[in-house]
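call fold(seq) -> C-alpha cells
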Amino acid sequence: MSDTESRPPQTPPLRPTLFLDRDGVLNEDHGYVSRWEDFRWIPGAREAVAAFNRAGWLVIVVTNQSGVGRGYYTEDAMHALHARMAEDLAAVGGHIDAVYHAPQHPEAPVEAYRHPDPPDRKPNPGMILRALADWPIDREASLLIGDKPSDLEAAERAGVRAALFAGGDLMQFLADEALLPG
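ret:
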C-alpha cells in the first residue's frame, strides 16, 4: 500500500463566500433584465467582485429569476446574459464562481415553473443552502449582499450574515460598512 492510499482523503479548506443578489446589487434593476443590451452594472460592482476574488473569497450569485417562470425570457437567455457578465468581469480581473437561480413562482403561467412555495425562491434559503452543500464554504465568515428584505431573510434562515444595499456605488457601500475583506 502506498503512502497516498493509507491517508484519508483531504477536504478542501473552507472559504468565506460573498453571496450576491443580482438585480439591484450587481446590475440596475429595471424589471426582468434578460438581454445584454439592457444590462447596466451597478457602479463599483465589478470592482467589488474582483476585490473579493483577490482576497480569496468565493463569489456566488443567488438570484430569483421569476421572469423565466413568467415566460418573459428563457433560461438559455438568462445563461447567455450571465456568460456576458463573466466576460465583462474578466476584463477587470473578477469572476463569479457560481450562479444559483430560482425561476419558480407561485403564479408562473409556465406550469413547469409554478410552485406554491418554491424552496429556492428568496426569502426561502434554498439557493444558499445548495451552495453551502456544493462548495467548501465557511458559513460563519460569509456575507450576503441584497437589496430587498427577502434577500436578508434568506441569508438569516441559512445562517449567513447579510447587509442591505440601498443603491449607489457597491464598492463604496462595502467600504463604508467595513465589509471589504482584508
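The longest strand covers residues 58-64.
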